[in-house]
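Data deposition worksheet. Section B asks for the primary sequence of the deposited chain exactly as it was used as input, without tags or linkers unless they were present during the calculation. Section C holds the resulting structure in token form. Section D is free text for depositor observations; keep each observation to a single sentence. Incomplete worksheets are returned to the depositor.
Section A, Depositor: J.P.
Section B:
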Amino acid sequence: MPGGLLLFEETAPAGARPARLVSVRTTTPNGAVLRTTTYRDEGQLVPLEPAVLFPARAREEPFVAQVADLRPNVARFLVVTPGADRVQLISTSPDGYPVSKVYRTAGRAVTVVPVVNGNRGGGYRVIAHDRRGRVLYDGVPGSGRYLFDG
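Section C:
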């Protein structure tokens, strides 16, 4: 709906380190999507995506952001895929390397996906499946432009 507001918020499961991801999406009158995403961990607020404008076709695309590395040669990516049961990241490099394992989301829309040698991958294709194995998304999430870039 034009001008509508969707607030997506995900918190860490019980027993995990407390963290919160908040993504706010607003649809403009012409159908474009304005999205901002922040991550809060142990009292720190980290803007991952400050006011980015996407074309209407990108409305349901996953959000992927690299977060702190797990250990040397293992990059971690925060992947937001509402409705997905399993996700996988595959590099957009010509040989498709590196590639992550398939990770179950445990019913959460936010998953942290480690990728061995993930810093070598550049961009990533996201493959997301629902519980029945249907493909929800298979592609490279589009890039938007910062709202104030003119």
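Section D:
The two ends are 25 Å apart (CA to CA).
The domain at 60-141 is CATH 2.60.40.2470 (Immunoglobulin-like).
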